[in-house]
Design a protein that fits this description.
Distance between the termini: 21 Å
Keywords: Membrane, Transmembrane, Transmembrane helix
Order of helices and strands: HHHHH
Structural class: mainly alpha
Radius of gyration: 21 Å
Strand content: under 5%
Length: 100
Amino acid sequence: MKIKKYFGLLGMEIPLFLYMLGSYLNYPVFQNLIYEKECLLKYDQNITFCRNVSAYYDDKDIQSASNHFYFISSLTLLCPSIVTTLLLGAGELKYLLCFK
């Protein structure tokens, strides 16, 4: 019975956990994709060179361009999540105040 009571207290924690888990699982794959695409752009679509991760890992131009692109994409993805968080937070607060 205590487990049911505990899960009844959980509101937004479970969806936020699932969202953050998906974000953290996506990060390494997305970062490697960006590195490979930047390498292909810089070295004129040389697939054999860009398949070797250690070859372009030390290239500062690829690192800089990849980090810049990842930063811009993070900011782009941040805007909808802020709106969603504000709406869900307001909805949760309204829901909790109705039952007190």
